[in-house]
Amino acid sequence: MCRQHNDFVAGPHPLIKRLRAIAKAANMDLEFVREGANHEVWTIGDERLVIPRHREINEHTAKGIIKKAEEVTTDGDE
Fold it and tell me: Residue 9: what pLDDT?
């Protein structure tokens, strides 16, 4: 049996959901900039975040992206 497109989970990747929550908590926006061949570019404020476009993202990579987003959203609070 051939897989249909609707067999796959639709909607934003959990990492994107997490980044939106981080940005929202800092009263900032997570904005989509562009798609590359294997990644997407998003911004929070002036900071660019490069997100791999894979079903599963390496945990180490995801933690690094989240850390960068948290640093961007808390820079003025320290």
Answer: 46
